[in-house]
Design brief:
327 residues; mainly alpha; 0% strand
Length: 327
């Protein structure tokens, strides 16, 4: 933008954050030390995001020993992730996106799944997380809003189906709207900035320049599938998810039992992780040019968490099944 003498085709959060490393790098003339000093703040934030994902999960494990085993298995699998190791230390927005998604994950789980956060704390956190997401990476902001909307809509419809009280539609909608209020406010606050940064105009121009079509979208989905299947544990995660789905269906045919693992928070978490992943994948595929592995670094983390959670659900179910048989 020549009038403002500023770049207005993208938000500025990542550039402001980069000044920390640049300032440190100016303290030395060694090119290798400069590179390290620029990357260290990004790597620190990326690692903090990974730790926040792990901390959040501690709220869902009532058995501390199980949680320790979860951490061991999760970290062991992550050691094999080239995507995570490479891009968690990038001097770009991807480590910041990891932390922002982890913060959103913590806030969502702590309030809407566990109920540990007071409403005003939740509202402030959700608003600031989404606002920071917008000013760091617009795509991440859109993804998080869509994840929230998709999962809450699913829970709302499921609640209505189970109760059968469709005549109480608006009454039952009130608590959902209350919880969604910080998301709505964050969206409204973002509107003038969307106009200022000309994000919709830029997106349209980039799509036209790269001749984006539905065929490109399908090719992007195939590329993401390739990354997750060749570099990560996609097939293992799909097998585990299929087993959990089968066991959940079987459990659904049995009398409700509070000790049944399919009435536990881990299963709810697993469904949320699946929703989070799918929204990420389908939105990233909307990028009108070649898809790089760094675009799905958060999907990688969610995939491994979901895999390990599903393994614990399967093991828990099998253990209780054999205890019941031997009783």
């Amino acid at each position: 933008n020549k009038d403002l003498d500023a770049c207005t085709y993208i938000t500025w959060g990542n550039y402001f954050f980069a000044t920390i490393g640049v300032r440190l790098a100016n303290m030395t003339n060694d090119i290798y030390k400069k590179t390290a000093l620029i990357r260290i703040p990004y790597a620190t934030v990326g690692l903090s995001g990974l730790l926040l994902f792990m901390f959040t999960l501690s709220m869902l494990f009532t058995d501390r020993n199980q949680y320790k085993w979860f951490l061991i298995i999760f970290l062991f699998i992550e050691l094999f992730s080239i995507t995570l190791v490479l891009h968690m230390r990038d001097g770009r927005s991807y480590p910041l996106v990891i932390f922002i998604c982890a913060a959103f994950f913590y806030t969502y789980v702590a309030k809407l799944m566990v109920g540990r956060l007071k409403y005003y704390v939740y509202a402030l956190l959700m608003f600031f997380i989404l606002t920071i997401a917008f000013h760091t990476n617009f795509m991440t902001f859109v993804i998080l809003v869509m994840v929230y909307a998709a999962h809450q809509a699913f829970l709302f419809v499921r609640e209505l189906q189970r109760s059968g009280k469709w005549n109480e539609l608006f009454k039952r909608m009130v608590p959902y709207l209350k919880n969604a209020s910080p998301v709505i406010v964050a969206g409204l606050v973002a509107l003038p900035f969307i106009s200022f940064f000309e994000l919709t105009k830029t997106s349209k121009a980039v799509s036209e320049y790269h001749h984006y079509t539905f065929d490109v979208y399908k090719d992007n989905l195939k590329t993401i599938w390739h990354y997750l299947s060749e570099l990560e544990f996609l097939y293992t995660a799909l097998v585990a998810k299929a087993i959990v789905a089968g066991l959940a269906y079987y459990a659904g045919q049995q009398p409700v039992n509070k000790k049944n693992p399919f009435h536990s928070k881990l299963v709810t978490l697993s469904l949320f992780l699946l929703c989070f992943m799918l929204v990420q994948v389908f939105m990233v595929a909307r990028i009108p040019y070649y898809i790089f592995a760094r675009y799905v670094v958060v999907v990688q983390i969610l995939l491994v968490i979901m895999l390990v959670v599903d393994l614990f659900v399967i093991i828990e179910y099998v253990n209780r099944f054999f205890k019941k048989e031997n009783a």
